[in-house]
Amino acid sequence: MRNSLVCLSGFLSLEIQVFQVPEVHATPSSDVTLLCTYNGSGVEEATVGFYKWYRHLVKTELEVSNSNKDFTGRISRVNTDQFINTRSAQITIHNVIPSDTANYYCEVTFIHGGEITGHGPGTLLNVTGSRRSAPRGPEVLR
Ligand SMILES: *[C@@H]1O[C@H](CO)[C@@H](O)[C@H](O)[C@H]1NC(C)=O
Ligand SMILES: *[C@@H]1O[C@H](CO)[C@@H](O)[C@H](O)[C@H]1NC(C)=O
C-alpha cells in the first residue's frame, strides 16, 4: 500500500520545462542552430526520451526532419547521449533559404511510468537579406 503511494507521487512529480531563443536572424545559405534546452523535476530519473521540432505554418505543422521533403539532408541533431546528459535538444538547419522563415517549436518527451511531453514557446527563424550576389538561375524563377 505505502509503496504504491510512493510510486504514484514519484510519477506525478515529473514535469518538463522547455526553453527556446525567441528569435534568430540568418542570411540565405548560412547554417542556423536553433537552441533548445530543458529541465524539470524528475527528469534525472527518466532514462528514455527524445525530441522533435515542428515548423508552424498557418494551416499545418510539419515535423522538421530529414524525412520531410522541405528539409531533406539539411538537418543535424544532437545524439541521444548529448540530449540526456547536456539537456540539449537543438537542431541545426543547413543552407537556409528565405522560405524557411517561420516559427519553430521544440518538443521534448520523456517516458517515466507514462509519457510526459513539454514544448517550448517557439523560435522565430527569419531568413532575410543576401550575403553575396543575388541568386541566379532556377531559384529566382520559383
Ligand atoms: C531548472 O533549472 C533552474 C536553473 O538551473 C533551476 O533553478 C530550477 O530549479 C530547475 N527546475 C526544476 C524543476 O528542476
Ligand atoms: C524579418 O526581418 C526583416 C528585417 O529585419 C523584417 O523586415 C521582417 O519583417 C522580418 N520577418 C518576420 C516574419 O518577422
UniProtKB/TrEMBL annotation:
GO terms for biological process: immune response-activating cell surface receptor signaling pathway; positive regulation of natural killer cell mediated cytotoxicity. Residues 122-142 are annotated as: Disordered. Residues 14-117 form the Ig-like domain. It is a single-pass type I membrane protein. It comes from the Eukaryota. It is found in: Cell membrane. InterPro entries: Ig-like_dom, Ig-like_dom_sf, Ig-like_fold, Ig_sub, Ig_V-set, NCR3. The keyword NADP does not apply. The keyword Transmembrane applies. SUPFAM superfamilies: Immunoglobulin (SSF48726). Belongs to the natural cytotoxicity receptor (NCR) family. This is Natural cytotoxicity triggering receptor 3. It comes from Eleutherodactylus coqui (Puerto Rican coqui). The lineage of its organism: Eukaryota, Metazoa, Chordata, Craniata, Vertebrata.
